Amino acid sequence: MATTNPCHGTQHTRIIFDVAYGRSNVPQDLDFDFSERKIKSLWTILDQTVLSSPIDELEPKHHMGYFFEQKMHDWDVSDGKLFYYSRCGEIGDPAKILVEFE
Question: Got the DSSP string for 33-86?
Fold first, then answer.
């Protein structure tokens, strides 16, 4: 399920979701319609201490507490559902992702 800390900034919206490392053919079980907004970037949060900052103050950088995930390689959206299949963890393990929308 999605956490309840969206940030509606002037440039984009950010939401942190609780997900599980999955497979490319299985959508995440999230109560969110991803067809309504285009994803600008998706980051796996590797260092949970970054979550002590407000979401609008997070500054994701690859390999510095975050891992930048590539569309099609690590995630995709189809029929409003997010497919997240990063290889940063084992299938079924929990993860937190930061999704930035355009």
Answer: -TTSS-EEEEEEE--GGGGGS-GGG----BTTTEEEEPBTTTEEEETTEEEE--
Q: Burial level of 63, CB count in 10 A (0-12/13-18/19+)?
A: exposed
Residue in the structure block whose two tokens are 């690590």: 74
This model's pTM is above 0.90? no
C-alpha distances in angstroms, 63 versus 35, 47, 87? 29, 10, 14
Give phi and psi for 61, each to the nearest 5. Answer: -135, 135
Running along the chain, 102 residues long, what does each successive block of 10 average in pLDDT?
A: 47 85 94 93 94 90 94 96 95 95 92
Candidates 89, 87, 100; CA nearest to 34 is 100
